[in-house]
Amino acid sequence: MAENKISANPTKETYPLFYLSDPPPSGLGFGFFDSPQKNPIPPPPPVEVFPSDEQLPTKSTAEPISINDTLVLLKGKVSTFDVFGVSNSDLVAGKYEGGLKLWEGSLDLVKTLSSDVREGRLLLKGKRVLELGCGHGLPGIFTCLEGAAAVHFQDFNSEVLRFLTIPNVEVNLSKEEDKKEKCISPDVRFFSGDWSEIHQLLLPPRNDNHKKVTECISAEEDSDGYDVILMAETVYALSSLQSLYELIKKCMRGPSGVVYMAGKKHYFGVGGGTRQFLHILDQDGTMAACLLAEVTDGSSNVREVWKFSLKQA
Ligand SMILES: C[S@@+](CC[C@H](N)C(=O)[O-])C[C@H]1O[C@@H](n2cnc3c(N)ncnc32)[C@H](O)[C@@H]1O
């Protein structure tokens, strides 16, 4: 089986069960994906969303989420019905892809990033970070707080970015600025659109003349790709796994770029899962995968956090 070819780090961490303030809709936490997906409608065009487009104030409604003993992030809450006119348990293929809920994987991912930073396995200072399928954006926010030079957030829906991600970023960053301990001035940008098209905005075509006059640009200022790509709960739908993989290959800065992926081993009812994504990696053969954490709470689906990097020649 393909998954046997993937080498997993034998050092696994098992996190205790934690609860989100929004309980999952039913069963294993992805009840809304049980509904059959209809023929896809054309995706919305890729656009950059600016913080001035923000529409809902969430500062007053942001709730604290404890990641570990020392790390607390704030999360806003927005109703799916208010934004999209659909009930909380709905996924509307081609219209709304689940970004208004906070999924467990995004907290698994922040915990893993936090422990990798603490243990010296990951340096975020000065790095360019991309969070794909960000929703609340907590993993990307964590990297801002750790001194990343640029953090770009992507979601399928511009509404998710305007109503949720941008207010969340602002409330978390202003909290840190108030402390006046660190200078947080990352280049933070927001992009919406489908994974099959969003590279057009994330990787603008290089202008050779511009390249010549900026030859002395440092690697960290160079906008050609991302050092760290983050994604949580993005591998549920079989139909989008290939375009997601092609996107991370385009966006990853070689040879040192890394991808952190959190997700469920299997998403029952829709066929996707971390192992299906690893199968695509394995077939392509250009990336190595390492299992960083396995989260078993005894009652729901097994969740995993993986790290990918380019295989060394
Ligand atoms: C289940 S939500 C997870 C949200 C967040 N990462 C979390 O864990 O709380 C899946 C995310 O992937 C994004 N997404 C799904 N399919 C997509 C596609 N084809 N193109 C772009 N984004 C997509 C959605 O916008 C959504 O934010």
Automatic annotation (TrEMBL):
Entry annotated with the keyword Methyltransferase: yes
GO cellular component labels: cytoplasm; nucleus
GO term, biological process aspect, one: methylation
Enzyme Commission number(s) of this protein: 2.1.1.85
Keywords of this entry: Cytoplasm, Methyltransferase, Nucleus, S-adenosyl-L-methionine, Transferase
Entry superkingdom: Eukaryota
InterPro entries, A to Z: Methyltransf_16 (IPR019410), SAM-dependent_MTases_sf (IPR029063)
Keyword presence, Cytoplasm: yes
GO molecular function: protein-L-histidine N-tele-methyltransferase activity
Location of the protein in the cell: Cytoplasm; Nucleus
Main location class: cytoplasm
Classification via SUPFAM superfamilies: S-adenosyl-L-methionine-dependent methyltransferases
Protein family (similarity comment): Belongs to the methyltransferase superfamily. METTL18 family.
Entry protein name: protein-histidine N-methyltransferase
